[in-house]
Amino acid sequence: MLMTELLIRRAVPDDIPAMLQVVCDWENATPWMVSVLDRAGIEASIRDVFGSREIWVAGKPVEGYLSFNPETLQVSGLYCARPGNGVGKALMDRVKQGRDAIWLRTHEPNEAAQKFYRREGFVKVSRHAPEPPNVLHELRMEWSA
Questions:
Q1: Are 108 and 138 in contact (CB under 8 A)?
Q2: Cα dist. 128→50, 109, 134 in Å?
Q3: What pLDDT digit, counting tens, does each position of 39-70 carry?
Q4: Number of neighbouring beta carbons within 10 Å of residue 88
Q5: In terms of DSSP bridges, do strands 101-107 and 138-144 run parallel, antiparallel, or are they unpaired?
């Protein structure tokens, strides 16, 4: 898919099943990922924040999504069905628009994500112990314009 053809738009509730599938597929394909929620729990967590976050989806059908908390300036989730195809970059570019700084946490074993975030201008600022129910350490990374 060419980037000029990639549709980035605000998510609607009807997008939740596709977003859920992207997350579940990523978790299932990631050997180091320890899933702390089952499918119903992941869906509930998406629905719980739907009204309070900016949630952006890419593609039709949905190929990826980004969840952003505008109050804290945190990217709280970025998932792509096929990493490396420009979907994550397009979503990140969208959330950076009009902002001077954003931050996120990424799982420490997720070296591919860290490499992507560094290319996007993020720098590692701290390491965090797992907060139950999570069991993986996380890195905080920050971006500023």
A1: yes
A2: 26, 13, 11
A3: 999 999 999 999 999 999 999 999 999 999 99
A4: 22
A5: antiparallel
